[in-house]
Design goal:
mainly beta, Neuraminidase, 2 domains, four-stranded antiparallel beta sheet, 38% strand, disordered N terminus
Length: 205
Amino acid sequence: MRIFLFLISFCFLLGSCNPKVELTESSQLSYELEKLVDHDGIIWSIEFLDDDNIIFTDKEGLIYTYNGSEKNEVLGGPEIYLNRQGGLMDIQLHPDFKDNNTLYITYAKKLDENGGNTTIARAKLNGNSLVDLEDIFVSKQSSEKGTHWGSRIAFDKEGHLYFGIGDRGSRDINPQDLYRDGGKVFRINDDGSIPLDNPYVDKIG
């Protein structure tokens, strides 16, 4: 049921520029799209906090919760380097979120005068505020290019965190070079440390 509601809600949020609500039919089922929340920005990621509450990110750098009737801004998020496709991106709950209130976000971070790159941060959700916000992975290479930042987050059953960084607009260079972060899928522990059984863990880079 949660998956069905998520898909319906997410599809509608993405298409919220069209205010019409219509009965939609297919060869297998019919369903009605119901508008849940007004939002003018670009919603990048949605997660269920529980059966009744969601949290979602806006590419411009804002985070919101929605409880079925009210949208509330979540304070304490990171400073965003807004550059074309780059901004505030994915949000993912820790597998033990119910016990530790910890969540993870990916965002575009300004690194230096040469630009920025994708960063992974974690924080605890305390009401409608993020506390103990810290970066646990910061890409080494900065770029002024505004394309292909990534980035989705996923956990495996052992609690390892996976995330991707796009090729950052250099598809013929970054993915093939182990010493560059772009165009890679990373596997880290939930605190940002490197698992000892990772591929290439013994290589400097």
